[in-house]
User: Which sequence fits this backbone?
């Protein structure tokens, strides 16, 4: 199948804008980096994923490992909480990026966005090494960089050169994707031997010799300093340290703060869960990849409280369950990956963590995070117990014991879920009226059925409108009487609408409508009075 | 019917906490003034109202004045938008409270929270007036104030005394409610003639003579200065004027920013609407009345774009429609009031505005805002067109005209909706197992049915669990096998659950369950296999 030249992500972003799934936020003011708005179709899709998660977590949670239905309640906590919350959770001290300032250019860089290579000249004395510090830049700059490398290295083998990495992917893949790799790598490799090192792995002495990415002199960069990712604001009339508050970087902590209230006021006891859907904010230094890494985003998090000895059992249960769930939402097995985080890479308090990763077009052939399932032990409750001086133990009246429950946290990105499902659904087929179409799971599709009078006369609009008014009570439908039927099909394909129902001459004479299936593009005749049950069956 | 001594609001707040409707945010850290969290029941109730609004606005909007179904699409925009947004909307310059600082006490007061009375001594020379500036304080301070008034006025007739008003209600009502009015007023009236004036109505010379509420000397208060109600934050690594952003104080502006994108990418044309549900933030100086005036809250706003000549027609339509809708949600006619805002009191750009007000317990016998329906003309689009230099006109291809649509905005408070519906639903009846119970509209109730095995043995739990697992697929249900059946009814009454289904001996022998109706407390027998359709019928 021939594919268009533009990259898949570019086409998807374009489709999202053109059809009203996702728009850049504040676009008429030039946009705001890291913020996106959901248009009519995107909002419906996002709401459908949210509702499916809520149904499968809160209303109809799965059967647990003990054969009993799991018990989960939902809550909705404030984005702004008491600042002590983030002291206790560790976000105030630990939720930070290392930043480097340049005294010459007055610019600031994320330290981990500077990749460093040890570069050895091939055609010079092998003993004479020139350490060059650079990272990846826009394709059009590659030739210039290569030329600069050769020139500088030949002139002076003891200077340190740095470049800000293009904040997208690892460089090799990026170059390969853009078809520039061979050109770039062959030039580099003819002159240098490259050994990759992270900038943050340099010692202070080496760092002090680096020429800043936008500077001309060496030694202009400061040592890396911590920059907190939480947005801050001020409550009340004065703006000072005492009135400083933070926009939550995750919904989870709101759950921990109310765990005791829920325990005291709902009829729950461990094992039980508290679920929440809501917005979170992270002041990312380099937001990127469309709605993958944004500064404002939505999460679907659930904290599951269990007796300490049952932790690993429930951890395994929830990892498997969440993998199953994303599969049920339509992600194919080949594109989902369970990434078990190794002992050295987990948060110190976590006894086990698995990322559920998706093969996004911009990570392909690798995977990127979609959901994290973490066995957080009793870390959070213990921290809040200490900082709030409130006893958060669960008292088991029957067993006459008391303990701080352990917590398993399946934390999914709702915004990322929209992205993964759009990536998965995106189809390209030049033989169709609309080469681009979305193969969304029917129950998640923003519009369930398009309802068309074949022509806008002869009594067809009246029948179609009546059907629309009836169907819309149970399914999100769209009425469309404009343009040719082929164009209307094409519009619905782009929106991912699974069914198109056409009222035609046959409807007027024999009360049959034509229903066209998005995936097969096949049409079938269905009796007008059977359309509702037809849809209900197909969408259940 | 005997009523308890505690005020209705106190009882409601207590019930909300006890049953998990609403908790103070960050309660284990002492709370955060103006922030509340929704517990399991409150979240379900809020979601149900949100979904009902979305259904009646986006999925199944009403029939318009022209007999055609209204066309509305939903969107979901970012809380943080480009700061130019708030310049254009007028929020940066106009969305402010007047504040007064006290140089002596270092405290800050809202200027409009200081009520001023001109006080004339009765028993002294009628010509000699003492102007006393005070407002209302806690009941236990009333006697002290009266004593102070008498003493100071007798000693010196030319000083100015101020008190910070208790930010609850108007004083007379407050006193009456607390049963202290007669005591207070009789003392005052025996010595003084009171004439009320707002503090902000004093001229600068008078203001300069005032003794601050927490000060001992006169002339310590500054003149009123503007304080913006928008929370601010900073995007990116530097915190300066250029990186300053705001948390939206209303969801509406996000709609105006994307109006053009929606017009270009959806099949809509005026008259059409764009709807949004989401959080907004206002740094209220004095949050009050439970979840009525909070700093973080949720709105359900819809902007309806119409040809300019049809503005008043649609304004009338939406005011009537929104009144009808709140009635359908369960608010009684006697408790809703259409408050038409007079010419002098509207925003300068508004051609007409009506507040839909509810008689909250703390405003009774008066009303407080629940929703505002404003005919905003083309003010917002015109402002954004000017500030963004983007043409926002609608081009009517058929009529060969172009114009900026006029906008009708029904802007409802979702958080306030929860409060109004809880106030309306609250019942007190000492003859019931739970004297306090919630008469919520069944379809909005957090739990639709409680499912109880009469005793936790004899095979009843198995039948009840099976029924629960079946019913929960279509209705939010709760299974409860603990305590006496009376206590379980009582718990469900407090939660507003319309139906309780008991599996008893009769179920085992003749396959009948007992369904108890919340409102009538009557029970009826229903066949086990008819329960699902029974619920569906009663809840539709």
Assistant:
């Amino acid at each position: 199948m021939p594919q268009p030249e533009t990259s898949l992500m570019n086409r998807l972003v374009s489709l999202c804008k053109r059809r009203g799934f996702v728009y850049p936020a504040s676009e008429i003011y030039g946009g705001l980096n890291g913020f996106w708005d959901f248009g009519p179709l995107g909002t419906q899709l996002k709401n459908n994923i949210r509702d499916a998660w809520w149904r499968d977590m809160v209303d109809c949670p799965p059967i647990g490992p003990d054969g009993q239905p799991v018990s989960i309640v939902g809550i909705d906590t404030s984005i702004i909480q008491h600042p002590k919350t983030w002291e206790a959770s560790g976000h105030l001290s630990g939720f930070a990026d290392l930043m480097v300032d340049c005294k010459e250019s007055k610019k600031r860089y994320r330290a981990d966005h500077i990749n460093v290579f040890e570069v050895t000249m091939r055609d010079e004395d092998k003993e004479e090494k020139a350490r060059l510090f650079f990272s990846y830049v826009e394709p059009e700059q590659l030739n210039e960089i290569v030329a600069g490398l050769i020139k500088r290295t030949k002139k002076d083998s003891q200077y340190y050169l740095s470049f800000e990495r293009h904040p997208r992917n690892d460089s090799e893949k990026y170059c390969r994707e853009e078809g520039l790799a061979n050109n770039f790598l062959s030039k580099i490799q003819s002159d240098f031997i490259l050994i990759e090192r992270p900038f943050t792995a340099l010692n202070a002495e080496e760092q002090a010799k680096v020429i800043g990415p936008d500077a001309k002199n060496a030694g202009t960069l400061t040592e890396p300093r911590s920059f907190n990712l939480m947005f801050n604001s001020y409550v009340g009339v004065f703006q000072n340290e005492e009135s400083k508050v933070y926009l939550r970087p995750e919904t989870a902590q709101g759950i921990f703060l109310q765990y005791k209230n829920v325990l005291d006021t709902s009829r729950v006891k461990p094992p039980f869960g508290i679920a929440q859907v809501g917005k979170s904010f992270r002041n990312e230094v380099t937001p990127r990849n469309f709605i993958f890494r944004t500064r404002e985003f939505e999460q679907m998090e659930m904290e599951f409280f269990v007796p300490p000895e049952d932790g690993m059992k429930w951890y395994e249960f929830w990892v498997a369950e969440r993998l199953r769930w994303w599969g049920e939402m339509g992600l194919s097995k080949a594109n989902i990956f369970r990434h078990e985080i190794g002992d050295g890479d987990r948060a110190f308090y976590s006894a086990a963590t698995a990322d559920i990763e998706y093969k996004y077009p911009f990570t392909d052939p690798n995977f990127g995070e979609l959901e994290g399932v973490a066995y957080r032990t009793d870390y959070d409750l213990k921290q809040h117990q200490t900082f709030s001086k409130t006893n958060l133990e669960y008292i088991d009246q029957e067993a006459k014991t008391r303990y701080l429950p352990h917590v398993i946290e399946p934390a999914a990105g709702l915004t990322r879920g929209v992205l993964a499902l759009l990536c998965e659904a995106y189809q390209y087929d030049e033989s169709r009226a609309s080469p681009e179409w979305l193969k969304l799971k029917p129950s998640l599709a923003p519009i369930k059925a398009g309802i068309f009078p074949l022509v806008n006369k002869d009594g067809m609009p009246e029948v179609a409108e009546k059907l629309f008014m009836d169907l819309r009570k149970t399914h999100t439908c769209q009425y469309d009487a404009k343009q040719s039927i082929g164009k209307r099909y094409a519009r619905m394909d782009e929106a991912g609408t699974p069914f198109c129902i056409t009222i035609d001459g046959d409807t007027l004479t024999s009360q049959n409508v034509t229903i066209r299936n998005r995936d097969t593009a096949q049409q079938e005749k269905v009796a007008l009075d059977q359309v509702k049950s037809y849809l209900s069956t197909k969408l259940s």
User: Anything to note?
Assistant: The radius of gyration of chain A is 28 Å. The longest strand of chain A covers residues 296-306. Chain A is about 30% helix and 25% strand.
